[in-house]
Amino acid sequence: MTAPPLPKQGPEISYREAVREAIREAILGDPRVFLMGEDVGRYGGCYAVTKGLLEEFGPERIRDTPLSESAFVGAGIGAALGGMRPIVEVMTVNFSLLALDQIVNNAATLRHMSGGQFEVPLVIRMATGAGRQLAAQHSHSLEGWYAHIPGIKVLAPATLEDARFMLGAALADPNPVLIFEHVMLYNMTGTLDGAGPVDIRSAKVRRVGRDVTLIAYGGTLFKTLIAAETLAKEGIEAEVIDLRVLRPLDTGTILASVRRTRRAVIVDEGWRSGSLSAEVSARITEGAFWDLDAPVERVCSAEVPIPYPRHLEEAALPQPPGIVAAAKATLGR
Amino acid sequence: MTAPPLPKQGPEISYREAVREAIREAILGDPRVFLMGEDVGRYGGCYAVTKGLLEEFGPERIRDTPLSESAFVGAGIGAALGGMRPIVEVMTVNFSLLALDQIVNNAATLRHMSGGQFEVPLVIRMATGAGRQLAAQHSHSLEGWYAHIPGIKVLAPATLEDARFMLGAALADPNPVLIFEHVMLYNMTGTLDGAGPVDIRSAKVRRVGRDVTLIAYGGTLFKTLIAAETLAKEGIEAEVIDLRVLRPLDTGTILASVRRTRRAVIVDEGWRSGSLSAEVSARITEGAFWDLDAPVERVCSAEVPIPYPRHLEEAALPQPPGIVAAAKATLGR
Amino acid sequence: MTDAHAIKPHLSREHLLDLLREMVRIRRFEEKCAELYQQEKIRGFLHLYIGEEAIAVGAMRALEPGDAVIATYREHGHALARGVSMDAIMAEMYGKIEGCSRGRGGSMHLFDAATRFYGGNAIVGGGLPLAVGLGLAEKMQKRSGLAACFFGEGAVAEGEFHESLNLSELWKLPVLFVCENNLYAMGTRLERSESQPDIHVKAQSYNVPAEVVDGMDVVAVEAAMRKAVAAIRSGAGPILLECRTYRFRAHSMFDPQLYREKAEVEEWKKRDPIDRLLSWMRQSGALHDADLAAIEAAVAKEVDRSVEFSESGKWEKLETLTADVYAGEVPP
Amino acid sequence: MTDAHAIKPHLSREHLLDLLREMVRIRRFEEKCAELYQQEKIRGFLHLYIGEEAIAVGAMRALEPGDAVIATYREHGHALARGVSMDAIMAEMYGKIEGCSRGRGGSMHLFDAATRFYGGNAIVGGGLPLAVGLGLAEKMQKRSGLAACFFGEGAVAEGEFHESLNLSELWKLPVLFVCENNLYAMGTRLERSESQPDIHVKAQSYNVPAEVVDGMDVVAVEAAMRKAVAAIRSGAGPILLECRTYRFRAHSMFDPQLYREKAEVEEWKKRDPIDRLLSWMRQSGALHDADLAAIEAAVAKEVDRSVEFSESGKWEKLETLTADVYAGEVPP
Ligand SMILES: Cc1ncc(C[n+]2csc(CCOP(=O)(O)OP(=O)(O)O)c2C)c(N)n1
Ligand SMILES: Cc1ncc(C[n+]2csc(CCOP(=O)(O)OP(=O)(O)O)c2C)c(N)n1
Ligand SMILES: [Mg+2]
Ligand SMILES: [Mg+2]
User: Fold this and answer.
1) Burial call C271-293: b when 16+ CB within 10 Å, e when fewer
2) Annotated active-site positions of A, please?
3) pTM of structure
4) How far apart are CA A320 and CA A308, in angstroms?
5) Please, which pLDDT band fits residue A7 given cuts at 50, 70 and 90?
6) Of A4, B332, C318, D221, most Cβ neighbours within 10 A?
7) Does B67 contact C154 at a Cβ distance shorter than 8 Å?
8) Residue B10: band (very low, low, confident or very high) from pLDDT cuts 50, 70, 90
9) C17 alpha carbon – ligand 3 mean position (Å)
10) What is the number of CB-based contacts under 8 A between chain A and chain B?
């Protein structure tokens, strides 16, 4: 998969390398930063993101942990309380359930509950999503759950630029920040010419259009851009919004677009019921009801533990044809 | 708190006692049924629900577990696979995060992933919600998260009748079923005259009205009924729907009501962003957009770890005045 | 069991009086809390430490200001012994902004940055991973502090105990794990929660040194703590101390205590840590006639003052309900 | 280590040939899988058991049909040795409806009700609590079965190990915990995941009996398993067997194996469990000249047939995508 919106100049870099560069920069720039997680060191990372970092930075800064998600995520929280700036890698969101108590009950609460005395400047990175035929226990898209928790911020870098620069912004933020890297993006390549520091506040319009607003994030952004190209061939100009930040949601950018296009489709790889798409839909209804010319549509994953065979996995996940159909439905076509 | 909709006859019974009776009936009726959880036996249950059951049924059927949520919930799943009909009590939803991996990755997936060979006829009960000034780590309302998971069913008994009879229906169901008992309901009393077996498929209209549909469940139902009385005094007749079943959602009952009233307010004790209320709102937009005379409103918890002091806790949770205001807003009043 | 008389810490009269005073402060403070709970001044869950005071008091005396402390929902004693002011703790129980957590946490969530008191955690076992991280931060920043982590024997059954001991020993972190074994987790007796009820034996699974201490003997606790703290500061990695104790009161204010015999409670009360220190001080001549009365009078005054302080404290305004959820303004 | 020659199971020629045949079946099956992975017939994660076959084969021979088996994502060997048909397993790897999980699970999720094979679990440590529950079901229903649970040494660091061993011993459940200690969890060597690398020592924390077995010696494994199974069936409660082994291949098909020396792999290959059994059978005269060739020929045929079977299998229709998510029709 390639990244259409980035200009094709300068050296090619992959999403994987962009994340690695971000980690390198962070470690080089701040002695308090270190990385810990399962197989981030000697193995080089489950998705090869951290390859070479152990050799470059040594075992103090690049820490292989045992299989103990609750303890090492909790240790990241504790280390942040103690003055460090940890980057904790949970191999994938599927395993983060084992650490969820630490995130919900400690990372998210400590600042408020302590009356503002303590803070948890922690970054947790994890791979998310399906598409590699890894079946029911290894294909979750649960970032929408994390976006429900007051006290944490949730990011979904879907471009090389965000992969390269969101981490720095997250580490500079005194709040606990979770970064979800979609597994199907790691091999995406492009160039970073002109790219630089990014904010972790705003959604971005990745394609301008006037007929319908398509809202996506993470692994569904490029499927949505593909759908927009298909729509364009049929004379429908879709605006594509990349949410980027799942908590706090940039409602302003969403509403401004929908008020113009008067139609919206949300694309979310989470299972439909109770996914983040529902929140976005509800906010559109609340903020732009009188501007809507059609009900807000959602394109999400089928409500099934993701099956192994390719054809079933593809059928279970949002795909460009479904996005096209939903966009057309908002236009009565 | 008392239960307005139930006729005041026959012996008074509390919600707590209704749940206990349901457990007794289940154990008496099926040798495969047993109860396990922290302090369900000798202590009598954190909320005294299971008091006396150990004495009545002995330690084989009423099993005190160590503090090991992941292991004993997983053991419940395994016992169900092995032919038992376990009722697992997780003391409160707050601690269920420690067992979430077992629920998401095993209970919810095994039937589908095994090609339909295995089933997990398990019931997990837990207390949920705030209102007892237990602060940030003991006041979660995370049933909306569970309602996101394909493969499980999620119930929220809000009446004595449902507290008494949903468990039986859940045990008769071959799917894993989670039951959320709101902590503020345990002391609710009333009579069970004429009450009998209930379904675990449908939402129920608890109050008939024509002007606006108020949708609630669990701990917010009675606040919503109070709000409806207030509205009635101002000439607004609200219809009140009790969701009862959070997964699968009974969209039909919701839409039928909203198509009549043309206005909807959802009341949910979860934090607003990403709560179940968002899903209900999205479904109303999807199914009744052209019938709506006003945007769907939501009354939810403030996005804050629930604070300890009573005035702050009250301010953080949905309350009748907020429900009244939201209902009026849909009527432009 | 550690022989308290073998590795005696500074057993000066002043020191013993200090230990006594701290235990009495905790005892009287909590007795007042129970009263205030009946009056509905304090709400939520209230877990009393009465009977177990020797552990927090003995332990805190062995720590330095740079050390980090993590405790559970049964942590009034730890906060007091650590040096958090009684006023701030009582105001927290009232839920007033003068409280040590600005009133937001209540009994289960006492916090204090000045004394590095990291709570107050209401999830059983939830504090252990934090302690590992606090220890890691000390080590990585080459500071001499350690993290002292208190938890009940019930928490030992949680996976967090297992994962945290292993991780801290693997990385040789300065963490002191203090298990307050009071024989019950709510209504579940040790033998029904642990197939191997000797908690300290479990440390072998991680190559972590461990010791059992008589948790009703404040001098023994302090001695064992000093030894452990010294070893940890010298780079030995984590240590587990199992302190055998008993809670004299109910688990919380809602507990009818159906699960234990009154006789058992009475038996343990004979080993009351305050009485025990008192009689030992009397025997050894360290207690002068007026000492106890003076301490009791001073403590009574301190407790009364904390109540007044809290009564006259202020409620947080509704406008700041969501302040401090994030640093800075963050819309939901 | 168990002396295989002390507690020999039925070491008839037939029995030894059977052990040999089973190990060869697993080996050749997996070699074919690796080939098919290159051809993209098999996708997703593929974790080979090559080098560790003696454990599954020795273990399953000691179990009865009524016993329940739980394994991990590295479970082809367990499924084959347990008696799930090679056709159904291969078809599962292809994702066809003729697969033992109807094609929905793939390599990591083999299931089979007929042989009580409960998977195939891709969450490290996730199977242990299930095994406790399956053991509980046996005990409560007064059946004579037990639950045999296989997991890697990496899983030992997870809280689920700790909680499951404790719970099963507390309730004296018929559960056999078999730790396949192959020294690595992905790229993490045992000493970097366990502060106490002797896994069997950890059983003391739960009062669970434990034994170490040479996992490269199928006869030793079977002997230890028979002993353990007999003890469990007599009501002794759970037992932990630590089988020392090594995986000859990469962790999965994506692993460049940067974390270990080729020499170490070669060293372990000298202890190949198939070669070892062969040479022992040769020495003791149990292997006739034509035996191995006959086995290889039969296995090759079986493997080829399983490929044909899978190639001609059918894909699940899109219409049934959400079938079996629930029993009965349940709208989302
Ligand atoms: C994870 C979790 N499970 C259950 C509870 C409910 N609970 C609160 S205290 C307690 C008993 C803990 O016992 P122990 O660790 O021995 O500490 P003690 O109360 O005896 O000091 C329980 C079960 C909880 N707070 N957290
Ligand atoms: C909870 C969890 N964390 C991480 C992973 C990723 N992962 C898959 S296998 C594995 C290594 C497990 O090692 P071990 O238990 O020794 O088994 P082996 O692969 O050596 O057979 C890891 C880290 C996972 N599947 N589940
Ligand atoms: Mg205890
Ligand atoms: Mg291994």
Assistant:
1) bbbbebbbebbeeeebbeeebbe
2) 69, 138
3) 0.97
4) 20
5) very low
6) D221
7) yes
8) confident
9) 28
10) 139
Percent over 90 (pLDDT), chain B: 96
| CB-ligand 1 contact for B165 (6 Å cutoff) | no
Is C124 close to ligand 1, i.e. is its CB under 6 Å away? yes
Q: Which ligand is nearest to the CA of C151?
A: 1
Write the pLDDT tens digit of every residue in A231-276.
999 999 999 999 999 999 999 999 999 999 999 999 999 999 999 9
Under DSSP, is residue C178 helix (H, G, I), strand (E, B) or coil? strand
Whether C123 has a pLDDT exceeding 80, the answer reads yes
DSSP label of B332: T
User: Which atom from ligand 1 is nearest to the alpha carbon of C181?
Assistant: 16
- Candidates B102, B153, B174; nearest CB to D129: B102
Indicate yes or no: CB of B307 within 8 angstroms of CB of C255.
Answer: no
Task: Answer positive or negative: Cα dihedral of D30, D36, D38, D41.
Answer: negative
Select from A219, A261, A204 the least CA-distant residue to A238. A261
- Confidence check: pLDDT of D29 > 60: yes
- For A42, the closest of D155, D187, D318 (CB atoms) is D187
Q: Give the distance from CA C298 to its chain's centroid.
A: 22
The pLDDT tens digits of the residues spanning A59-84 come to 999 999 999 999 999 999 999 999 99
Take residue A228 and report the two structure tokens written for it: 């927009």
φ, ψ for residue C244, nearest 5 deg: -85, 120
The pLDDT tens digits of the residues spanning D144-156 come to: 999 999 999 999 9
User: Please, is C239 exposed, middle or buried when counting C-beta atoms within 10 Å of its C-beta (0-12, 13-18, 19+)?
Assistant: buried
Ligand 1 neighbour C186 (Cβ under 6 A): yes
The CA C251 to ligand 3 mean position distance, Å, reads: 9
Query: For residue C106, what is the nearest residue in chain B, using CA coordinates?
Result: B308
Q: In the prediction, which pLDDT does A10 show?
A: 74
Is residue D321 scored above 80 in pLDDT? yes
Distance CA A99, CA C276 (A): 43
Mean pLDDT of the residues in chain D: 96
Is 50 exceeded by the pLDDT of residue C6?
A: no
β-strands B264-271, B297-301 pairing: parallel
Q: Which of D128, D135, D139, D131 is nearest to D163 (CA)?
A: D128
Any residues with Cβ below 6 Å from ligand 2, and which?
Answer: A 38, 67, 91, 95, 98; D 74, 122-124, 152-155, 180, 182, 184-186, 251
3-state SS, B85-137, equals EEEEEEEEHHHHHHHHHHHHHHHCCHHHHCCCCCCCCCEEEEEECCCCCCCCC
Q: Which of these, D331, D76, B100, lies nearest to A140 by C-alpha position?
A: B100
Counting Cβ atoms within 10 Å, is residue C216 exposed (0-12), middle (13-18) or buried (19+)? buried
Interchain proximity C105–A113, CB inside 8 Å:
yes
Q: In B, residues 200-239, which contact D (CB 8 Å cutoff)? A: none
Does an H or E element contain A245, and which? strand A245-247
Work out the minimum CA distance from B29 to partner chain A, whole angstroms.
Answer: 33
In whole angstroms, what is the distance from residue D120 CA to residue D103 CA? 13
Atom from ligand 2 closest to the CA of residue D185: 13
Q: In this structure, which residues have their CB less than 5 angstroms from ion ligand 4?
A: D 152-154, 182, 185
Q: Looking at chain A from residue 34 to 73, which residues have their Cβ under 8 Å from any Cβ of chain B?
A: 70
Q: Are A138 and D122 within 8 A, CB to CB?
A: yes
Task: Compute the distance between CA of residue B127 and CA of residue B181 in angstroms, rounded to an integer.
Answer: 5
- B120-160 residue pLDDT tens: 999 999 999 999 999 999 999 999 999 999 999 999 999 99
Cα gap D237→D231, rounded to integer Å: 8
Write down the ipTM of this complex.
0.97
Structure tokens at D188: 């993490």
Partners of A88 in beta bridges: A36, A124
